[in-house]
Amino acid sequence: MSFFNTQIKFASDIVAANISIIVILVAAVIYISLAKKWKVIWSLIRTMDHRKIGILYIAWGFIFFLRAGLDAMLMRTQLAFPNFHFWVFQGDKYDQVMTTHGTLMIFFVAMPFLIGLMNIAVPLQIGARDIAFPFFNSLSMWLFVIGGLLINMSFVMGGAPSTGWTSYVPLAVGKDIVGNGTAFYDMGVQVSGIGTIMTSINMITTILKHRAPGMGFMKIPLFTWSALITSILILFAFPVLSAALLILLFDNQFGTQIFSGEHGNPVLWQHLFWAFGHPEVYIVILPAFGVFSQVISTFASKRIFGYSSMVLSMLAIGFLSFMVWIHHMFTVGLGAFANVVFAITSMLIAVPTGIKIFNWLFTIRGGSVRFTTAMLYSLAFIPSFVIGGVTGVMQAVVPADYQYHDSYFVVAHLHYVMVGGTVFGAFSGFYYWWPKMFGYLLNDKIGKWQAWTFIIGFHMTFLPMHLSGLQGMPRRTFTYLPEDGLFEFNFISTMGAYLMAFSVLLFIWNVFYSYQKKERWGVADPWDGRTMDWAVPSPSSHIRWPYLPVVRDLENLWYAKEHGDGTLPFSQKEEKRIVVEKPTIIPLLLSGGFFTISFGLIFAVPLITVAGFMGTLLLMAWRSITYERSIDLYTSAQLEEAIRREEE
Amino acid sequence: MKKIVGIWGSCLLLLSGCSAIQNMDVLNPAGSQAAEQYSLIKLSMYIMLIVMVTVVVLFVRFVHKYRARPGFTPEKHQENRNKKLELTWTILPFVLLLILAVPMVKSVFGEEKQDNTGAMKVKVTASEYWWKFEYPEEGIVTSQELHLPKGKRVVIELHSKDVIHSFWVPQLGGKQDLIPGRTNKMALTPEKVGTYQGKCGEFCGAGHSFMRFLVKVDSQQDYQQWVNQMKKENTSSKLSAQESEGQNVFKNNCLSCHATSGVASANQGKEGPNLAGFGDRERVAGFMPNTEKNVLKWLKDPKKVKPGTEMPKAKGLSKDDYAALSAYLKALEK
Amino acid sequence: MGVESNVENSTETLLEYSSPRKTAMFLFICAEAVIFGSLFATYFVMLHHLGDGPGPKEFFKFKEMILPTILLLSSSLTWYLAEKTLHVREKGKTLFFIGLTALLALGFLSLEMIEFLKNIGDGYTLGRSPFISSYYLLVGLHGCHVLFGILWMALLLVHVKTKGSTVANHGRFVSFSIYWHFVDSVWVFIFLLLYALGQFL
């Protein structure tokens, strides 16, 4: 079949994918209709509430997590035996699945999970009524969704990107592209990247400008600190990617040859990509650090150890992360001097990271550790992440890295930090903040089963990969020869991957199970919390705090518990102009505009692109003109009255 | 608690598996560069083991000792900062890193300063998905199997024809990328006679998994003999009837891309891999054992065997033609 | 619940309203600066990738770019006047200066288009050489920013015309003036680093 000049072949895998897409959509429509949830959906997609936007981030991230996880299962099955032929997943089909897995997991799973948690927790922790610009918050979220959908669609629309999440040129602009793979990658990541930059601006502004009275910089909870530093990293790293993707788009679709061709410079792409890519690694790990700091301190019932060195080490990590990117390029041949300098800066990052590890350990010392599921994930993180960290330092040793580079050793390392750090952090955060998101707790018993299977499966999958790397298995290969001596390692990995998949299914079951039971519904402070996020009702309401809480301590709620009855004191200041934005569909429509632009660029139909631009600009103008009508203004007294009315 | 046991178990497994691990390619060097890299890997592993053990011991102790349980009361005085401790774990890592960084810097600059006069030269050109090896000093060309003499430093010049590849022989030394429009150099000094696996270390598309080669390290004498043989023009006088039939098929279908002589001048303008001495090679298509069955499988549908390969399917060949072609290829011996 | 006109238009509310906007806009400019920085870096790398195309000395016509530079830079000044007059609530003057700024920007853009067309006429098309491609990307992206600024000003004209000097309009002016001064200063860099420096490379 020809679709806008792109050939789509209906092979068995494409047919299966199409059928499952249709089945899932139809099932969703039927479920929503039967449960009479269309109204809920309609209000959800127009919402301006930071909590609901955070939930949407996480929900969409989870959908992409399932897709990327399915990809991982397909890959692990194909790699279970030497010279194996599983279905169609050899050659460029494997490459498509591998690329989709990497791209989705990093840009559309790790990031939304963490940004979702930031959306939910940061305003509550700092005593803000909402994110600084709720409209842009919603728009950012929809742009991320659109980007993720583009990447997901590509598989059934002529071919997914197949050149790795790093999309190295000239591979990514040459004859090796399947369908419009590179264009899908380019626009998908570009569109969501725009959203991510907007989120970072929003988050920084919120934290800088909307802290409750009394909250100086050294009274900001660590999760919010991590959100702030991450957002700063995003702000300076993502635009580099935007520029690189813009050039890639031109090389790929408009015939320029900056990265490729006879006269181009393929190494420039690597520089730009990793100048973004390395900060990106810390963008997805720092918020997880923040989650661990909150969770460990809460469940060890103890104030975090070495708060100021925690903040300083995060700042140091953020700063250093911009000066290490060449360590991804040691084998490019940039010369001994460049390699050595970047090797040393890379090693230096181990110091602040080590400080954090020891601070967490000493937070536990002298406390009283409660083993909830959230805590289990945070505790499992410590040794897992240390393994990932030390292999990272090992790779900074340049001559040794000539051996590790692009082998399974690297695959093991990056999964140890990304899963052992980011995904553990995300799950920990879900279990921790679930009551604040939905008002009920996730079942702890199922949760513990889920955590244990996930942790064991994780080590089973990725520990052997170190060894297959040392045995000489290059990454991104779809098979190996019987005489390579790689079968045992790969087989164990595959079994571990299945165990992790089982664990993810357990999580889904836990969500449904706990939703039916609604354990401890509406309890504001189920964990004996220490920060202000546990001082508001569960789930948190959109309009709150007619008079802002006064911050007296880093652990403001704990301070109130120790020095009183546990209620926060409120400011007396009567505010005259409190803005609450009304729900609107415009962010979703705007993201539709971006989708149209991308679609036109991907399939090289200029008319659609132009239409998309016009639509987007008109919607922006429309929003600007109707702005005054789309907000409600309150004074403090009016807001108090409105909250009372809502409660009745 | 179970978890801690699990982690310790896996650590012990790792240590007890050391004997098996010692046979792993990267940890079993056969060349001086790989040996030096191995020594750095060992050093870094030891240092990192210290870190691991420290963290795990503290972790187990704290989690065990301070677990909430009936009758347990947490300490009254809760310590939230401790300058001495914090300074310790800031300074100690610096010391450990210094121990690691100094030999690394030495090694990197040492390799850079190595004297290359008198070293042998080999020019490697990577294409999707095969390797061409040129010996400019000898005027010969081969593909897929790199022959090197033992104990001699070899300077390898790396080129790429299409996308980025990476030249990796784990037992002889680490990777170096081959980048279009750029010339990289690396050196190998094989110390042991043997056959070593070579791989493409940078993702290069559908056939990346099968972009492999072999490095045959021979004694000086055997190597010289191989060179001399490669320099001879192939003669077709000794061919059997079927083989000369195959030669005709080859001339009509394959010769435009493949040369059967190892002499450099005969390889001018040939886009495909050189086939001189194909009958002696261990592998066909870079990864399958060189048997008649595999040769036929490869010739009949190259793209099915090796995804993404440039090699086309020959048109209109009969079963006999294929058999003859395979026999002829087998007859290409030194 | 109040509507905009009922709310006191005091300095305090003005500040409270525009301060986060200023911060956000400043952060946005940081991101933009990184994008342009990356493209400048690309341009300088591409100075060594001329292919069979011309070098900077041959390619850039310095003198022809002086007039557009003057137009764009003076638009910063007229914008400053537009902002000033908004503060003293002289609606007519504000409208006039927004229009003038937009006109100057439009003049700049047309001259740039002429330059592009001339280049293409000379055979220096987008894909001629990596060097020329990087020039088009950098200058083209800046041009897009100018175009977006013009559309934005058209919108501001509507806002000022219909609403006058409200809190929200002050916020809008704060945002736009940061944007516009940034777009101007990027051009200064382009003019100096591409056109002027190109004469000596």
UniProtKB/TrEMBL annotation, chain A:
Belongs to the heme-copper respiratory oxidase family. It is a multi-pass membrane protein. GO terms for biological process: aerobic respiration; electron transport coupled proton transport; respiratory electron transport chain. It is found in: Cell membrane. This is Cytochrome c oxidase subunit 1. The lineage of its organism: Bacteria, Bacillati, Bacillota, Bacilli, Bacillales. It comes from the Bacteria. It is an enzyme of class 7 (translocase). One of its GO terms (cellular component) is plasma membrane. It catalyses: 4 Fe(II)-[cytochrome c] + O2 + 8 H(+)(in) = 4 Fe(III)-[cytochrome c] + 2 H2O + 4 H(+)(out). GO terms for molecular function: cytochrome-c oxidase activity; heme binding; metal ion binding. It comes from Fictibacillus solisalsi. Residues 36-552 form the Cytochrome oxidase subunit I profile domain. Keywords: Cell membrane, Copper, Electron transport, Heme, Iron, Membrane, Metal-binding, Respiratory chain, Translocase, Transmembrane, Transmembrane helix, Transport.
UniProtKB/TrEMBL annotation, chain B:
Binds a copper A center. Residues 117-229 form the Cytochrome oxidase subunit II copper A binding domain. The keyword NAD does not apply. It is found in: Cell membrane; Membrane. Its cofactor is Cu cation. It is a multi-pass membrane protein. InterPro entries: CcO_II (IPR045187), CcO_II-like_C (IPR002429), Copper_CuA (IPR001505), Cupredoxin (IPR008972), CuRO_CcO_Caa3_II (IPR034236), Cyt_c-like_dom (IPR009056), Cyt_c-like_dom_sf (IPR036909), Cyt_c_oxidase_su2 (IPR014222). GO terms for biological process: ATP synthesis coupled electron transport. It catalyses: 4 Fe(II)-[cytochrome c] + O2 + 8 H(+)(in) = 4 Fe(III)-[cytochrome c] + 2 H2O + 4 H(+)(out). Residues 18-115 form the Cytochrome oxidase subunit II transmembrane region profile domain. It comes from the Bacteria. Its main location: membrane. Its EC number is 7.1.1.9. The chain crosses the membrane at residues 44-64, 85-105. GO terms for molecular function: copper ion binding; cytochrome-c oxidase activity; heme binding; oxidoreductase activity. It holds the Pfam family COX2. CDD domains: CuRO_CcO_Caa3_II. GO terms for cellular component: plasma membrane. Keywords: Copper, Electron transport, Heme, Iron, Membrane, Metal-binding, Respiratory chain, Translocase, Transmembrane, Transmembrane helix, Transport. Residues 241-333 form the Cytochrome c domain. Belongs to the cytochrome c oxidase subunit 2 family. Subunits I and II form the functional core of the enzyme complex. Electrons originating in cytochrome c are transferred via heme a and Cu(A) to the binuclear center formed by heme a3 and Cu(B). This is Cytochrome c oxidase subunit 2.
Automatic annotation (TrEMBL), chain C:
The keyword Membrane applies. Keywords: Cell membrane, Membrane, Transmembrane, Transmembrane helix. The chain crosses the membrane at residues 24-45, 65-82, 94-114, 134-158, 178-198. This is Cytochrome c oxidase subunit 3. One of its GO terms (biological process) is aerobic electron transport chain. Residues 1-199 form the Heme-copper oxidase subunit III family profile domain. Belongs to the cytochrome c oxidase subunit 3 family. The keyword Cell membrane applies. PROSITE patterns: COX3. GO terms for molecular function: cytochrome-c oxidase activity. InterPro entries: Cyt_c/ubiquinol_Oxase_su3, Cyt_c_oxidase-like_su3, Cyt_c_oxidase_su3-like_sf, Cyt_c_oxidase_su3_a-hlx. It is found in: Cell membrane. It is a multi-pass membrane protein.
